[in-house]
Every structure is written in C-alpha cells, then in structure tokens.
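Page 37, continued from 36.
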C-alpha cells in the first residue's frame, strides 16, 4: 500500500470519477457481466441490466487533468474521489456485482496513485451481500489504501437499511473509515415523484429517508463509533429532524427502541458536506450541525453549478478557525488521510 504525504490547501471530500482505464477494460468484456458498453464521441456509455443507457462518461469526469487545474485555481490541495454512482453496478446479480466492484476499486485506487499526491480514492462495495461488502471494504482499505466508502442511497431494488448489510457496518466501524451516503443515479424516485425532479430532489430525498431508516433501525446504537457522512448537506434530514423525533416519541413512527431516547439525539453523530448549492441553506446547516460536523465538497464534475468554491463558506460570517475546520481539519480527523 503506497505511503502518502498530505498536501497543503483545502480538502475536497466529495468528488466523482469514472476512471478511463476502468471504462476501457470493461469495454473489452462487459458482456460477460451482462453490461452493454458503447464508445461514443463523449465517452463510454454503459447499459446495465434493468436500467436505461447511462450518460456517456468521459472528459473531465474520467481524467484528472482538467480537475487538477481547477483545484489549483480554487486552493484545493487534496481531492477524495469516489466512483461516479452510475457505474457502481448495483443492479448486477450478486456474484457479478462483487467482481465488478472489485475491478472498479482497483482502477479507482490505481488512478488516484498515478495522478499524484493530490488525489485519494473512496471505495465502492457490493450491496447484495453484507459479508462480501465487509470483505471488499477491508480489501479496499488495507490493500488498496482507500480512505472510506460511498454508498448509493437505496438504489433501484436494493434497501441499504436491510439487516443483511450488518457485517458491512461492523467492518466500517472496526476499520474506522467514513461511510458516505449519496443519492443513487437510479433509485426508487420513480415510485415517488416525476422524472424531472429526480436530480434536484430525488437524490437528496433518498439520502434523507435512508438516514432516517438507519437511525430508526438502531444502527448508531449498535455502532456508536461509526462515521456517517450525508452528502448534499444531509438532504432534508437536518431540517426535518424535529418531526422525526416527535413522531418517534409519540409512538407514531418506530422501528426499534433507541438508546438515546429519540432520533434527534443522534444528530451529533452525523456529518455533512457543503454541497447545498445555496449559501443560506449552508448557513442554516451550520447553525444546526456546527462547523465541526461539516466538510468541504464540490461534487465534481458538478462543481460549476455552485459557482466559486468559497462562495458560501467564505461569505457567511464564519471565523477563520471554523473555515479551517470545514475546509481541511474535519477531513483530516475523519478520513485520517
């Protein structure tokens, strides 16, 4: 496992990549996984079982050249890259999913290592078997040197709150690595709302509901040292936690008896990124969670949607010490990168 130094500058904990080397390799034998892959002018377009053809992956989503230039302009010294959620393979059969994810993680780690000290990688895991998920996370962390793991929030036909994943949660706690929850590219949103709101609201709602289910299941009681990060500012959870808490305490909504009395008491155990794409929302999140629980993220390649990186963090009256927590120190504490 390579030894890494930690560059100066901001740390971006929420970014995506679809590694070119991975796309080229699966292009050769994707049909053995049941995946159709076409090479287009815009990159590789994948079609997984039961899903429509994905957006083509290429350009600044797949390489580190353009992002390196942008990072330097923004003062980012390190970026933690997770796989583009579209290519995680969560609709594949159990055995093929595990092989696909292993190949993906190896290319993710290789791409980060070959791109220089500025880049580290975040693992994926198979979701249909908790033991396999635990083994893959251990391999990714101990052998490949990956810093944590990103899960798609309740994708397609998978329930991430299912007890079958208990070995995975135990492994994440034992390995002391963060678990990031990020809305899936293809989720259960079609059962809830219209397709034109899937990107703006669907992915954040998926994370909101999954986090609530995990708290209700007693996950944080069973694993009190688990590091759980909710992407996109936690979706709606920080703002709706009062309703969740009252419903639990009144006995209207209850999955398990919680040690701490109610869901709101678990909020200090959770972490969030700055990807709210609105400075007023971020300020409210900081008021609710505290700067020690918020980490800088860009959601690369979607960074341009939120303007300059520091538009929110640098203009809402935070002290320099709080800005330092958000832009660097919290990431070093959680990811130990």
């Amino acid at each position: 496992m390579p030894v890494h130094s930690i560059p100066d500058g901001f740390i971006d904990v929420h970014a995506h990549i679809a590694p070119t080397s991975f796309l080229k390799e699966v292009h050769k034998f994707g049909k053995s996984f049941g995946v159709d892959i076409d090479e287009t002018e815009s990159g590789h377009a994948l079609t997984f079982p039961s899903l429509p053809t994905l957006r083509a992956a290429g350009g600044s989503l797949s390489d580190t050249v353009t992002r390196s230039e942008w990072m330097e302009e923004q003062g980012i010294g390190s970026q933690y890259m997770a796989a583009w959620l579209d290519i995680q393979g969560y609709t594949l059969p159990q055995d093929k999913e595990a092989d696909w994810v292993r190949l993906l993680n190896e290319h993710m780690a290789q791409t980060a290592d070959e791109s220089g000290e500025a880049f580290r990688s975040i693992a994926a895991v198979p979701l249909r078997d908790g033991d396999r998920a635990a083994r893959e996370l251990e391999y990714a962390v101990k052998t490949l040197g990956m810093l944590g793991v990103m899960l798609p929030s309740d994708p397609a036909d998978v329930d991430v709150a299912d007890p079958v994943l208990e070995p995975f949660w135990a492994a994440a706690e034992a390995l002391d690595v963060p678990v990031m929850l990020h809305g899936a590219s293809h989720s259960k949103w079609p059962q809830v709302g219209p397709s034109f709101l899937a990107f703006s609201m669907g992915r954040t709602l998926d994370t909101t509901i999954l986090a609530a289910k995990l708290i209700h299941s007693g996950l944080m009681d069973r694993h009190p040292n688990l590091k759980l990060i909710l992407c996109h500012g936690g979706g709606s959870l920080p703002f709706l936690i009062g309703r969740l808490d009252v419903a639990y305490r009144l006995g209207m909504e209850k999955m398990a008896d919680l040690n701490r009395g109610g869901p709101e008491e678990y909020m200090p155990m959770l972490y969030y990124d700055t990807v709210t794409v609105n400075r007023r929302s971020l300020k409210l999140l900081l008021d609710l969670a505290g700067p020690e629980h918020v980490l800088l993220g860009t959601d690369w390649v979607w960074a341009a949607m939120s303007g300059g990186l520091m538009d929110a963090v640098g203009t809402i009256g935070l002290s320099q010490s709080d800005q330092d927590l958000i832009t660097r120190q919290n990431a070093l504490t959680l990811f130990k990168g």
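The mean pLDDT is 92. Flag for discussion at group meeting. Strands lie at 10-17, 36-40, 43-47, 76-83, 119-122, 149-153, 179-183, 228-230, 270-273, 294-295.
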